[in-house]
Design goal:
Layout: H1 13-43, H2 52-84, H3 93-118
């Protein structure tokens, strides 16, 4: 809460609970990305090039961490807006997650192409 503002009366609990469910969805998405990174490291360690699987695994784990942290930040900002009766702030979390995953998928496609051509 910004300095100098007092704690407002709490709004309808349905809004807070919906915001919490959204946070949990972001956390599940982050956890799934981390699990995908671990699976990538375990089952495709040398994809295309010797470091390919490890690079994709690290990218997925970092994307998962960023998704969870971004979801938490979004939840905090939305909770503050709900409590103060202000409009919900815009969020770059969905755009960032989509861009990160798209970049990882392009890298995976290139590495799979290298693997297929090299075989």
């Amino acid at each position: 809460m910004p300095p100098g503002e007092t704690e407002p009366a709490h709004p309808d609990y349905r809004f807070t609970l919906a915001n919490e469910r959204t946070l949990l969805a972001w956390l599940r998405t982050g956890l799934a990305l981390v699990a995908a990174g671990v699976a990538m490291a375990q089952f495709a360690p040398g994809l295309g090039v010797p470091w390919g699987g490890a690079a994709v695994a690290v990218a997925l784990v970092l994307t998962g961490l960023g998704t969870a942290l971004g979801g938490y930040r979004r939840w905090r900002r939305n909770e503050w807006a709900i409590a103060t009766g202000r409009p919900l702030p815009p969020s770059r979390v969905p755009t960032t997650v989509v861009a990160s995953l798209s970049a990882v998928l392009v890298v995976v496609a290139v590495l799979v192409g290298i693997e297929v051509i090299g075989a």
